[in-house]
Design goal:
Number of helices: 6
Number of domains: 2
Strand content: 15-25%
Oligomer: single chain
Helix content: 25-40%
Largest sheet: 4 strands, antiparallel
Strand order of the largest sheet: 1-8-3-4
Amino acid sequence: MAMLLSEMITQVRLNIGNRSNLTDAYIRQWLNWSMTDAATIRNWSDMKGVDESVTTRADGLEYQLPQGLKDILYASYLNGSQSLKLVYKSPRMFNAQFPHPEEDGSGTPSFYTKEGEYLKLWRTPNEAGHPIRLFCTKWPQAFNANADDECPLERLEKAIIERASGYGARAIADWNRMTIFNEAFNKSCLRLSRVDGNPSDWTPIYASEPIQRDFWQTGLMLPISSDI
């Protein structure tokens, strides 16, 4: 069972001391920063899901991506009972290969790119109302001041508390404890990364080569398989 916000706040207080100037609001913000830090370094299994909220428009080229989306791991075009996997191209390659997609004629999409907050398809669909299935990760929902919600990254509760404790230690200028908690956060993430998720689908296909290399070396993000 996931920890509640109030329970995580209590744990941070135990780590850095129950000081009167460290309000719940401060600690909640540190926990939110810590969740973002954890989500930045890896696509954890608790962030993974399927989204079918994007639907085609006849001759539609660009589509607003779902709110809170972090990475697309792969995309498929749903046409009745068929699911057709779309091939990713970088924005540079997509725009170079299809400089005028509206002139290429509509049909069944086969390629896509992610450009900013938009998904672009080629060919442009010839029918409206077909879902685009996104196997994706989303940023964890921030803790709200008005609710005692469960931690959205259940497997990372310990790491998030450690990172938030590091922010708290920095706020009171306890540099030694700040270093200790930040190192504990890194070690907790590294331990979990060894058993979290399927190594064939955890890195977005459009991650840069340096990012792929660095995350592979640290173990915090796994490489792309050849079949994506």
